[in-house]
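Hi V.,

Quick status before I head out on leave. The structure for the redesign project is tokenized and pasted below; the design run finished overnight.
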């Protein structure tokens, strides 16, 4: 896995503890047993006892590495590997490639963005928007022909891709009508056998 990591590879650092936080950036350096990530934005006071996840994409697959903080120089943060790289996409439901139009609204504020579905499953979806909205939850209105439904989603992760941001989402509790709407989209997509990798 380390062989494909090169300086400049996009990366996300995730801390699940304490309500969860994440920072985006790119790989700055790779060394035996560790790596440095150049991060964007305001950085926290790092905790050497916490377990961070470093998330990268290899082709269409996302991989994660459990790591511990060991130091910082400017916006470059060094981590020690706590194990081997592991694939992340172990979903309970198959994903299907989609292109439906969506509106994404932040639960915290009034921001609203147009976008499109990248993929969808019974457990969640990925949507492409211009930029990441604030907060850990968003409302996504999905348009399917003459019908639409607004779905409350938890933001699992976000990554820069194709000139925008892809939000990886898990559905919060869906009402029966919302579940039926999602199932209908999946049934239509599965008829074309467009299962996402």
């Amino acid at each position: 896995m380390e062989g494909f990591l090169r300086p400049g590879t996009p990366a996300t650092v995730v801390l699940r503890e304490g309500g969860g936080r994440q920072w985006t950036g790119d790989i700055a350096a790779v060394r035996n047993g560790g790596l440095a990530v150049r991060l964007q934005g305001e950085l926290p006071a790092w905790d050497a006892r916490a377990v961070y996840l470093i998330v990268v994409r290899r082709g269409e697959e996302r991989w994660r590495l459990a790591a511990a903080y060991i130091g910082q120089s400017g916006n470059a943060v060094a981590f020690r590997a706590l194990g081997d790289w592991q694939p992340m996409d172990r979903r309970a439901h198959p994903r299907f490639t989609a292109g439906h139009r969506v509106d994404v609204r932040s639960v915290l504020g009034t921001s609203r963005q147009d976008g499109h579905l990248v993929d969808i499953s019974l457990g969640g979806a990925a949507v492409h928007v211009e930029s990441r909205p604030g907060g850990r939850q968003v409302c996504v209105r999905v348009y399917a022909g003459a019908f639409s439904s607004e779905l409350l989603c938890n933001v699992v992760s976000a990554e820069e891709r194709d000139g925008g941001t892809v939000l990886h989402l898990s559905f919060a509790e869906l009402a029966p009508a919302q579940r039926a709407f999602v199932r209908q989209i999946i049934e239509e997509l599965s008829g074309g056998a467009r299962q996402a990798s």
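Above is the designed sequence. Residues 176-191 form the longest helix (16 residues).

G. will cover questions while I'm gone.

Best,
W.
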